[in-house]
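Q: Got a minute? One more chain.
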Amino acid sequence: MRNEKEFIEEIIGFAEKDKRIHIVGMEGSRVNENIIKDDFQDYDITFFVDDIKEFINQSDWVQVFGDIIMVQRPEDMELFDAVEKGYSYLIIYSDYIKLDLTLRNLEDLKDYLKEDSLRKILLSKNDFLITDFIPSDINYWISKPNERCYDDCCNEFWNLTSYIVKGLCRKEILYAIDHLHLLRQEILRMISWQIGINYGFNFSIGKNYKFINKYISNHLFNEILGTYKNSTYEDLWTSFRMCLQIFTEISNEVAYKLNYNYPNYEHNMKKYIEDMKNLYWKN
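A: Always. Here it is, folded:
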């Protein structure tokens, strides 16, 4: 596998020779100095060009960076909606380098720099860019909640419990599992706020909360992992109860430390859960 220096040099070398490419930007985790680099990281690259269509009409040009074993073009798909601006190629090469390459029009440059603080300019031709742009992960720092956001998280969590109970009592296991996943996201959000309170709101715990275990106890992390057991209805009920316990403890602590009102959803919805289980759950 080519190393980062080698691959970036190939990207820049190609762009330097192509007069249609004016600026090359890089985004994502490889720009973030706080992330340890490894071979699983994508190369998130953006070419700013005069006319995107010129590249799209020559679909094989991306093979210049190696033999392709997998490619996806989100903007050409019907089943899934594209999430990025411009036109993208998500490519895996034969040496397993993964390149997420996006084409954008040159007039999008200002928006590009505003959209995300994790941006780095690799190449700028003809003085198109102010050169003092410094990449930062500030856009990904834990966000301190105001009281309304705190209440919204609690509201969403306890409202979701009704869907899980419905799925369990109806014996619709996939429905219940899906909503348990949504429920767990609110637990992780609340824990991130607890981490911010304890360590400061000036750093990131990673995409999908992937570094959360570095800031919480092993006991709590193992409890969270325990909520992923869902292959049987009994496992689901156990995981569900654990979710209720974790969220109740953490949300109470966050409310106390931020001096926010603790909402009354818990009392009402725990009663609802037990009543519906007693009425409709049958082993």
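A: The mean pLDDT is 92.
Q: Perfect, thanks.
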